[in-house]
Amino acid sequence: MAWRASLSRNVKEIRFLFCQSSPASGPAREFVKKNYGDIKTRNPTLPVLIRECSGVQPQLWARYGKQPSIPSFPGTR
């Protein structure tokens, strides 16, 4: 997909935060499992941080240059 290749042009860092076992975090875990390799292959210098923490709601944080981070991760797929 084209969006994966253009991430590093605008995004400076991506952080995923989700629970290892919670059903609510299932879609986030599947997204990372399915897309991480392709994202890193197409954006080798883009930091992609994955944090697992018990009992948290899934979150995606994207950092754009000097602007503050913007949390965003929909509860649906």
TrEMBL record:
Subcellular localization, as worded in the UniProt entry: Mitochondrion inner membrane
Family matches, as InterPro entries: NADH_Ub_cplx-1_asu_su-2, Ribosomal_mL43/mS25/NADH_DH, Thioredoxin-like_sf
Domain of life: Eukaryota
Domain Ribosomal protein/NADH dehydrogenase: 20-72
Membrane topology: Peripheral membrane protein
Broad class of the protein's primary localization: mitochondrion
Keywords: Disulfide bond, Electron transport, Membrane, Mitochondrion, Mitochondrion inner membrane, Respiratory chain, Transport
GO cellular component: mitochondrial inner membrane
Gene3D superfamilies per the UniProt record, alphabetical: Glutaredoxin
Disulphide-bridged cysteine pairs: C19-C53
Family: Belongs to the complex I NDUFA2 subunit family.
Function: Accessory subunit of the mitochondrial membrane respiratory chain NADH dehydrogenase (Complex I), that is believed not to be involved in catalysis. Complex I functions in the transfer of electrons from NADH to the respiratory chain. The immediate electron acceptor for the enzyme is believed to be ubiquinone.
PANTHER family, per the entry: NADH DEHYDROGENASE [UBIQUINONE] 1 ALPHA SUBCOMPLEX SUBUNIT 2, NADH-UBIQUINONE OXIDOREDUCTASE B8 SUBUNIT
Protein name: Ribosomal protein/NADH dehydrogenase domain-containing protein
